[in-house]
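Batch manifest, entry 17 of 40.
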Amino acid sequence: MKAVIFDFNGTMFFDSDKHEKAWERYLGKLIGRKITDEEFKKYVHGRNSSFIIEHFLNKKMDKETLIKMSDEKERVYRKLCLEDKENFHLVNGLTGFLDYLKEKDINVNIATASNKENIDFYFNNFSLGNWFDYDNVVYDDGTLPGKPEPDIYLKAAENIGVDPGDTIVFEDALSGIKSAFNGGFAKIIVIADKENEFYFRDLKEVSGVIKDFSEAKGYLD
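Output type: structure tokens
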């Protein structure tokens, strides 16, 4: 394999609980009910904020309003991240895996539904510049269709000059898995805990399921 592209949230950083809490607090006030676990899997995890907001409010909204609402939610999310100091770190085994990829001259990039403010937040707090070129990272800037459309992953591959057929994707969400599969990527490896492993194990799009990056090297062949 010539390249590895990572989703970020729930893949490189276990923060799904923070996003869920932030969406529950923010959307709960607007829709007057709790979001179900199944709704989180289908309509939140891996999706961009515009899709999530329009889905749960069940209406199209202008771009300025969507940006304002998304920013409000993300401020809640970042506050939750900083408050949980014990869990504010990259996934187990990831830094060693990234060092290994760098040593082997294997290209890397990130393709995420996060916005620019969150990308800045991650680069500043996790020293991502040690491994990733900030200018190559693809995030939600409103110019590309969100996952499960393949555009985000295809752009991430294009930015580092690699073919999807020579590239592994690491993901954690169904929408992201479909995005990478629709883009023709060579392998899709899912990061999942034991509780959710069964959900992904039998999907035709998935080449493997691992609990963290201590198991990642074996999928590079």
